[in-house]
Write a structure and sequence with these properties.
mainly beta, 2 helices, disordered C terminus, Bulb-type_lectin_dom, glycoprotein, Bulb-type lectin domain-containing protein, Bulb-type_lectin_dom_sf, signal
């Protein structure tokens, strides 16, 4: 019995160190991140994914490793954890990325994307993208970049996927303590090839527009037009049969 107890303690310590100390960036089906001990860190150490606390709620999110206060993505904005129990994992039965509390699924993060294949992994990249992948056929099932919250990282998109109907928008948070959706959205609204602009809406109504993009310049965002800042800001526009969107090389935050 003593030997079994010692083995259990050593195994627990090993698991804690595996996720929190060595910078592991990938979990597989059945692995769990819990509220207190485990996180994933991207290979280069840029980003961390795990649980974080606000005054009254607990969320799963991604943040800059060197600045835990700067959250760039939140998984359960509308469904925070209010108990002291919670795990973040790939469900081994469905292949879905979920948050569970007290043995019950609280949030299906990867929506309807699932796989009965047990060879499913989730990986945090140095870009800040967190993706769910079927390793058997090398197929991406879901990625956080397709579901932005209030921060647009380099490599993310604003716009529409014309094949699937998916829209990429930013939505403000209610406050620093409450990550639920706020009243403002930022979207890329090209109505046609000639009209392409950023639009902020408040409760669905137009609140601000950047003016139409013209020769890669945005009229009401002069900071992006400064030639001396081109090494910081690079806004690319894509319009084809598959998508119409911008593809930024800079970061945008939407704050209430």
């Amino acid at each position: 019995m003593k030997i079994l107890t010692i083995f259990t303690i050593l195994y627990t310590i090993l698991i804690i160190n595996l996720f929190s100390s060595t910078g592991v960036s990938t979990i597989k089906a059945g692995d769990q991140l819990n509220l207190t001990t485990s996180q994933l860190v991207s290979p280069g150490g840029n980003f961390t994914v795990g649980f974080f606390n606000t005054t009254n709620y607990i969320y799963v999110g991604i943040w800059y490793t060197n600045d835990e206060t700067f959250k760039v993505w939140v998984a359960n904005q509308s469904t925070p954890i209010i108990s002291s129990s919670g795990v973040f994992m790939i469900d081994p039965d469905t292949g879905k990325l979920i948050i569970a509390t007290r043995g019950t699924t609280l949030v299906n993060i990867s929506d309807n994307q699932s796989s009965l294949d047990s060879n499913i992994t989730a990986t945090l990249e140095d870009t800040g993208n967190f993706w769910l992948k079927n390793e058997t056929d090398n197929r991406t099932l879901w990625q956080s970049f397709d579901y932005p919250t209030n921060v647009l990282l380099p490599g993310m998109k604003l716009g529409s996927d014309l094949r699937t109907g998916m829209n990429w928008n930013l939505t403000s948070c209610l406050s620093n303590d409450i990550a639920d959706f706020g009243v403002f959205t930022l979207s890329w609204e090209p109505t046609d090839e000639a009209s392409k602009r950023l639009m902020i809406r408040r409760r669905g109504q137009p609140y601000w527009t950047s003016g139409n993009l013209n020769n890669q310049k945005i009229p009401y965002m002069p900071a992006l037009n400064n030639p001396f800042r081109k090494y910081l800001y690079n806004l690319s526009y894509v319009y084809n049969d598959e998508e119409m969107c911008n593809d930024p090389l800079f970061q945008i935050n939407v704050i209430v």
